[in-house]
Design a protein that fits this description.
elongated; about 170 residues; mainly alpha
Length: about 170
């Protein structure tokens, strides 16, 4: 049974801009990216999935699958087939997966407390040592280590809740 139009409109309003940015990274034109967004929302509307994870991660996985399906469909056309098809597909899938991971990690980090997020960013994204992070954040080294432990534990829980497998 399809979702009602109001629910679909809310999903589109809340998630379409982020989906569009994601699709633009893999599309040749803005029109193709918009097609991916529209197809993603259409599938949600028609299938009325019983989503057990976050809506955003479900939408991004659906968009990823549509992008890969579109790529495969293009490659099946004889006039467009190229000799490097398997390598191209692997590169495309890898690029899409990388973008999806980035989007999901940004969403997960946004759900952490500011203190935990600051420590994770300093240690894992800026590649600071615990001592350097303590200096930047102006907190004791022991606090950096403690926050890092609890931040990673929280991040694992958030990613599990979003349906992201390790």
């Amino acid at each position: 049974m399809p979702l009602d139009e109001q629910t679909v409109a809310e999903i589109y309003r809340d998630h379409a801009p982020a989906l569009r940015r994601f699709a633009m990274g893999m599309s040749a034109t803005p029109a193709q990216a918009e097609d991916v967004v529209q197809e993603t929302i259409l599938r949600i509307w028609q299938q009325d999935p019983r989503i057990t994870t976050s809506m955003r991660s479900y939408l991004f996985r659906t968009a990823r699958n549509i992008i890969i399906d579109n790529f495969r469909r293009q490659q099946r056309r004889p006039q467009q087939a190229q000799s490097g098809e398997p390598e191209q597909l692997a590169a495309t899938v890898g690029h899409v997966d990388g973008l999806l991971t980035k989007v999901l990690m940004e969403e997960a980090l946004a759900r952490l407390s500011a203190e935990h997020r600051d420590v994770i960013v300093a240690l894992h994204y800026r590649r600071c040592t615990a001592l350097e992070a303590a200096g930047q954040l102006q907190i004791p080294v022991g606090t950096v280590k403690s926050r890092a432990f609890y931040a990673l534990k929280s991040l694992r829980g958030i990613l599990d809740e979003m349906g992201v497998a390790p």
